[in-house]
Amino acid sequence: MNTGKKIGAGLLSAALVLGVVGCGNNEDKETNTTSKGTDTTTNSPDTSSSTTEKVKITYSMWGSAEEGSVTQKVADKFNASQDKIEVEVVSIPWESYMTKLNTQATGGQLPDTGMLKEDGVIQWSSEGMLNDVSAMYEGSDSKPLDSLAYKYQGKTVAYAAANEILLLYYNKDMFDKAGVAYPPSVLDKAWTWDEFVAAAKKLTNDKNGKHPGDDGFDANGIVQYGASVENLPWQLETWTLSNGGGFYSADGTDVRVGEDASIEAIQKVADLYLKDHVAPLSVGQTDDGIQRTIIAGTVAMATNGAWNVGTSLNTAKDEGLKYGVAVLPYMKDKVTLNTGGANVVFSQTKHPKEAMEWLKWYNSEENNWGLISSGIWMPTLQKWYTDEALTHKWVDNPNFPPYEEYKSAVVDYAQSSAARPASWFFTNYTTDFNTLLGSVLGDVWTGKTTAKDAITKNLDALKAAHTGNK
């Protein structure tokens, strides 16, 4: 999911013709928190067999009226496929989506089911606003990847509507010109951090063609950088985990960003610009890293999410860009993060069983094929990663890099031990924490302070943000 940036309206509308919207994220927009509704208990489903009238449920989504209309057409296919449930889609503009849900929650008028931002799921669950959906896939021949389950107090309260992982993208022409081997697409051969930096130095050129470490290299006259590591706070968690630290403990109850391993990892990312001179300055404010680097032709390799294949790289490829995908380098442990916006069943519904039946159908890849085949989404169900015929159906198309390369660097990577859930799958108040951390690290990227000093001085505030205290 494009976490931190909204998919362009034109591209999204085109994808909706073939697929359907089911997840998204705008971390840079204001995040509203929920108020407790007047009825937060889970009601028993009304499944009486004495009536032939369909159970009517509502599904809320953020988007324009046009997008809502397209989604309703998909729901109409579901409505026509069986005689028990009828789904009505309610579209709400992104800007007012969470405000509207908060109002509905207070009045006990939430829809039966709907979309919810990644960073709001655990908070809503902690306030009794979401149903346990652990049983949604019981008896099914497949279920979403384990890393895509939102869990609160041991219960699954939502599944991501799409899968996304973090990858390493690279410009093949730049590598070929420099005579540098492509980064590995196979996890077993992943570069260490030192190997990554060494390759980046060979790919970094000043105006005289010199590289970092060469006599006379001009750090102020760089015309091509070797690497860029996206330093949006939520993506930085990858490197703290890779270095043996993290933002939080495994159960999400304690803050670990102040540990030496976490601080060291963040400083290494900063030093790509400050000391290694292989990366451009980035202050971690906007999620347009691939456009600013690989597509702009200024950087040879850059980290970011899998969604970039569909949102920007397909167009760039049509215009002549030769790019590849690889697994991320690693510090101590091999790590990539999963993410994906959630579809939830609200606790105020009188029809949780029917709501889950709709979501199970709606989340199936066949009903979101336009977004998957374009490369914006990745499938959520295990079988698309393990069944060779289904994997070929997904990946063997011109929108993707060569099959074996993409399968190894993305498909296999996503189901490997390296793939871990982003913290908002199990931790509350991640927006408050990430917002504060981004502010704290501002002077680290420019070298005005170190990661150790910045985090240590603000550790109490970061811990307070994690617990929801202001």
From TrEMBL:
PROSITE patterns found in the cross-reference section: PROKAR_LIPOPROTEIN (PS51257)
Low complexity: bias regions: 32-52
Keywords carried by this UniProt record: Cell membrane, Lipoprotein, Membrane, Palmitate, Signal
Pfam families documented for this protein: SBP_bac_8
Region (Disordered): 26-52
Entry-linked InterPro entries: Bact_solute-bd_prot1 (IPR050490), SBP (IPR006059)
Alphabetical list of PANTHER family matching this protein: ARABINOSE-BINDING PROTEIN-RELATED, POLYGALACTURONAN_RHAMNOGALACTURONAN-BINDING PROTEIN YTCQ
Record protein name field: Sugar ABC transporter substrate-binding protein
Source organism: Paenibacillus terricola
